[in-house]
Amino acid sequence: xxxxxxxxxxxxxxxxxxxxxxxxxxxxxxxxxxxxxxxxxxxxxxxxxxxxxxxxxxxxxxxxxxxxxxxxxxxxxxxxxxxxxxxxxxxxxxxxxxxxxxxxxxxxxxxxxxxxxxxxxxxxxxxxxxxxxxxxxxxxxxxxxxxxxxxxxxxxxxxxxxxxxxxxxxxxxxxxxxxxxxxxxxxxxxxxxxxxxxxxxxxxxxxxxxxxxxxxxxxxxxxxxxxxxxxxxxxxxxxxxxxxxxxxxxxxxxxxxxxxxxxxxxxxxxxxxxxxxxxxxxxxxxxxxxxxxxxxxxxxxxxxxxxxxxxxxxxxxxxxxxxxxxxxxxxxxxxxxxxxxxxxxxxxxxxxxxxxxxxxxxxxxxxxxxxxxxxxxxxxxxxxxxxxxxxxxxxxxxxxxxxxxxxxxxxxxxxxxxxxxxxxxxxxxxxxxxxxxxxxxxxxxxxxxxxxxxxxxxxxxxxxxxxxxxxxxxxxxxxxxxxxxxx
Length: 487
Hints:
Layout: H1 4-26, H2 28-41, E1 43-46, E2 49-54, H3 58-65, H4 69-102, H5 126-150, E3 155-163, E4 166-173, H6 175-180, H7 183-214, E5 219-220, E6 225-230, E7 247-251, E8 254-255, H8 259-271, E9 276-280, H9 281-287, E10 294-295, E11 301-302, E12 311-316, E13 325-330, H10 331-335, E14 339-340, E15 353-358, E16 365-371, E17 377-381, H11 383-388, E18 390-393, E19 396-397, H12 406-428, H13 436-449, H14 456-486
Antiparallel strand pairs: 1-2, 2-3, 3-4, 5-19, 6-7, 6-18, 7-8, 7-16, 9-14, 9-15, 10-11, 12-13, 12-15, 16-17
């Protein structure tokens, strides 16, 4: 469901900006000063869009484009190879996806998924999302600018913009210079953007791979997981619950050394019955405060009146009776005792020992979450409630001054870079109107077919047909993706 409050705030903000802009331009006392300010700063405001354009970076692009010409030539030639291969693969991928969906063949995972804040993007992730879009957009356009300088095409300026909620960037190239250079040189410029998007994916992947070594001196891993966030008002929040920075080492005897172990232990706790604990009959008689027993609507026996915050109803078998016995016992001290699965696990010669189990329904589990340096958390509920109430990280700080969230921030940002930059490369290279793929296709046709198809109009027809197919293909996939998202 859309976040209506956020949507209203967004619309209100843009309406206020647009009305303020129109007001300042229409007033005699402010119009001249305000318009001069916009022209000097390069800011332009329109409906739901703010653009900033500058020529201050032109010298920077000039120096970067003249640095090591041979290397840059090889670098952007590699980008041409990547761009052409990526174009073919993206067309094949989108065609296969559209065919499978339209023919009603099962698609395990949607390849093209629109990301919409408040719909399929949590609002607490929006900062990562928008920052990633901005970084990917800027580096994409910087690639075009450097390649243009390398190929003797003038860069007029560079800018960034915000369209509604989404940031982006653009580079302004001198069109006449671009049109007179050879198709190969055009390809180096057109493919530079998606090439840089691919390089972003590679670099982010490498950072993720070497992150344990980069953080070795400040964090440990492989011994526990650390709580990086607890959902407010969740089942594990509060003074006795899990808190930011807790080190979790086990869940009901299941060892937790990393996130994968955490997930495995949650799955195991859902399938297996709750662990029992060994206890002598003398202790049970001494500590039992059971009231009248009754059967709940879920089918389990309740003997503590369902009002105690420290006691829990336990069940057990004795040698003297074949019937299941119940006792209301203090939960913490009882579960501090030796764990057991079977009655035989508690055997001690010349002592009447039993294995007591929490008396719970099938969906409710009693879990003991062990924490370093703290008393264990006793959790009563569905294991998934525990799982979805917290965020965890593999990296446990070695020192108190080391921020707990830093590895999570780096990991999350790198994952967004891989996902969004890869998606931008795949989509941008499709031969579609208004995308880089349109100009890559035009330059490639001029390069490859000029000798075999000398007639320019025929090449134009081939270009138009492929471009139409690519546009329809991408449009079909976008419609399918939106349908899959909102169905």
